[in-house]
Hints:
This protein has two domains: 12-358, no CATH class; 390-511, no CATH class. The chain is globular. By secondary structure, it is mainly alpha-helical. The two termini are 48 Å apart. Helices cover 59% and strands 5% of the residues. Strands 1-2-4-3 form a four-stranded mixed β-sheet.
Amino acid sequence: MESLSRTEKHSPDRSTILLAALATGYALLHLAVIGRYGYFRDELYYLACGRHLAWGYVDHPPLIGLVARLIERFLGDSLPAVRLPAILAGALAIAGTGILARELGGGRFAQALAAVGLAIAPVYLFLFHILSMNAFEPLFWTAAALVLLRLLQGGDPRLWLLFGAIAGLGLLNKHSMLLFGFGVFAGLLLTPERRLLKSPWPWLGGLLAAAIFLPNLLWEIENGWPTLEFARNAETLKNVHDPVGFLAGQISLLNPLGLLLALVGLGAYLALPALRRYRVFAWVYLILLGILLVQASKPYYLAPLYPVLLAAGGVTVERWTAGPRGARWLRPAALGLAVAAGAVTAPITLPLLSEEGLIRYSAALGIQASSGERMRRGLLPQHFADMHGWPELAATVAEVYDSLPEADRGHCGIFGQNYGEAAAIDLFGRRYGLPAALSAHNSYYLWGPHGDTGECLIVLNDRAERLGEIFAEVRRAGTFTCRYCMPYESEIPIHVCRKPKVPLSSLWPKIKKFV
């Protein structure tokens, strides 16, 4: 294997111990603050998806639902249990980034710098802290990149089957794996490594990926392509199309030093002769960047590709500091500076501080995180605001439910305007004996009204005037207030509605909300 920097000879065992230590430290950091806030909105939703196993969901493929089902079945639904797989995925991604640097010819310093570059990135601190398909996405992309790297080094062409298997599972996790696959194919065509496509093995690998993905594809066809409808609505109604903001967002996602290291890696793939055979990775990044810039994309959509760039950046910096011994002091200085920079930005995406402490800290730094969506901001950035209020919401709804006449409780349903509200009722409402919630938002719409007639319905977060068009009787029975929630989840009315003017089953198709 061609080596970029071999002035130091390191035992693979010592490198493995180093990466294992970094990965373990990263996991322990997450575990130390795992209960500071509460369940994230999407975590509640994925747990609900796990109770409705299918080959697909409106807004994501099936894998996360299966993971959630297994967590709840074997570990329970406590916050540490729910988040443990994401934290483990983060630890593996840290190790995988270091291994990428090793495979590119890097020694211990290169591996450590690449891994630390990933560890200090605010986007990963958040993504690896909550249960989400976004926590597993970098792992699939990094694993596929490792296989591709071996193929570029002249490895057994049958490795394309492994690449296809990883890509297929990645597609069952998140459809963005299609972008990675397209980028790899286009990148190969744009480099001399297109020779790899002359073998039948990459095409067989592609067929294997398609076969693994097929059940989800058939589900999409059977259900009228709901994910495409969701994606169109999200792009036009929710996400902000701001190319400049997308590019600027990469700074806040990676930490300025992390982004600098990634850009060094990008330049190394393009300019350094020793990395020429791996230039396809630069093309993958540039192609995906171009695609995402012309769409209404959120900045974090590029996040799963950065381990590949950080690895090359670590190797390049190691090479720059491999000359006279006088330059060696730069290595601990670079690592120390990276850790210090990470410590400054970590509280913005990892719940290290109390709510009021975070508000003061963000104000001191002049930072106001954006979700990339068209919505009013609250006291906390959305990713933290959505960790608040869910148990309290269920308790408030339970008070309304318990106030109903006993004859009504047996057949009165609960309707949430979005999957967060409905999923909170489903998880936290158990302790109060609440029925399963209804919603027309995303996959909750597909799960239907459960045979509920709507003769008695507790409706969250809707206007009395609008409800009066649907029900003959509308009574406001409560209000939910939450200081740290998003504004649209605070001061929300709770109405008890009776005597629907049309059956709920007839109304259902008209209230579908895929966004």
